[in-house]
Amino acid sequence: MHRRLLVVLVPLAVLLVAALGVPLSITVAEREMQETYVNRLNDVGRFASLAETALSTGRTEALQQELTRYHELYGIPVALIDTSGAVLLGPADAYQKAARTEAALPRIVTAALAGARSEPSWEWAPWDDSALVVAEPVGRDSEVVGAVVTISDLSRTRELILIRWARLAGLGLLPLLALTAVAWPVSAWVLRPVRKLDAATSRISEGDLTIRADAEAGPIELRRLARSFNTMMDAVENAAQRQRAFVSDASHQLRNPLTSLRLAVESLAPHLRADGDGQQVYDVAVDELKAMQRMLNSLQASARMESLRTASPVDLDEVLATRVDRWHALTATAGQTLTVDVPPGLRLLEPPGGLGSILDELISNALRLSDAQAVEVTAGAGDGAVVTVAVRDDGQGIDVSERAQALQRFWRSPRHQNVSGTGLGLAICANLIGSAGGELRLEEGLPRPDGSGHGLAAVVVLPVAPASAPV
């Protein structure tokens, strides 16, 4: 997470350094070029003064030596030209060779012969390879008799500019490195409570309500958030515990009176007349008492299983190894067939209470409620993040409009009103699977033998167990 924070902070720092460094770099380059121009301007001004004296006296040998010596020392061709542009003094060959590549030379020389000092001809950008042409008139106004012209290669100046730019870039990297060095531990310190809070919420989403956030680390705002989060989780856990305790206690307290009532009702059997209406009322009362006892047992089982809120990794092969033989025995007794097609090596997070108990309930529903002739259990790894286990049958099925209601507590299909059950089985399974981060879906099952439609499929989707998690 702190890497993402650095991804935000470092580009902003780079933009800030660039906003300061680019104008400074431009200023450095312009100053360097301006200094070079001023030096050349001083040189041609001195040579123009000497040329005016030499031309007026006719003594040009000393000036020729000065111009030649200057070229040898600095590698800059400098020449005295007349009003026609012909070279009078200086290294003519070097001057003419350099002049052939400079498009700005004629304009600058024309301005100098007209008595005007030339403006700079160079571009400050270091990637521009043009030379610096400077011309100084010899004489003044209408008495101009020539001009001194220099053609300076600026490669060395541009190298100096690039070197200074590199130094500025290096200096600009120092605060960026310092920012990164400081921001990394600081962001880790700031975001460590956030990561722990994220881990805590992840565990809570898996059903572990005992997890609490660290309220002693990080900035004051995050500590305050962690304390509020812990207070909220205390209230949620207490409410869940009170709810489970109420269901368990109520079921337990009702069990004894209900058992006594059933015994009292069953004790009336010897006193009933075989030809009277009392026998029918007696049978209804006993059936209702049995149904209430089954419901109390289911509520107690639900409370016990919901108190186990931690999912654990398990191998699906091990779960099936303890269940498949019993499933085959149950289906064989009822004259039904069971097919199990599960690839080996699937490892998933087991819901609280055990995946085997959930599959037992789904198999039981397929056998008791659907009048199925065939039941099929399949599994697959899905997209690699989840494992899907499906129990399909070719029985009566459930209408699409009723499938969502079938996962609610106490719901029973109108077709199953005369079949023993409480309507809690699928609801409890869906709740336990959801607490493990999974999902229970009801879908279309196997085709019915008579071709009248399809049965029901109960599809359990559970997360794949982490590779490092012990089984």
UniProtKB/TrEMBL annotation:
Keyword field contains Transmembrane helix: yes
UniProt keyword list: ATP-binding, Cell membrane, Hydrolase, Kinase, Magnesium, Manganese, Membrane, Nucleotide-binding, Phosphoprotein, Protein phosphatase, Stress response, Transferase, Transmembrane, Transmembrane helix, Two-component regulatory system, Virulence
Major enzyme class: transferase
GO CC annotations, alphabetized: plasma membrane
Cited PROSITE patterns: HAMP, HIS_KIN
E.C. numbers: 2.7.13.3
Main location per the UniProt record: membrane
Domain Histidine kinase per the UniProt entry, residue ranges: 249-466
InterPro entries: 2C_sensor_his_kinase, HAMP_dom, HATPase_C_sf, HATPase_dom, His_kinase_dom, HisK_dim/P_dom, HisK_dim/P_sf, Sig_transdc_His_kin-like_C
Catalytic activity annotation: ATP + protein L-histidine = ADP + protein N-phospho-L-histidine
Protein name, entry field: Signal transduction histidine-protein kinase/phosphatase MprB
Species: Micromonospora saelicesensis
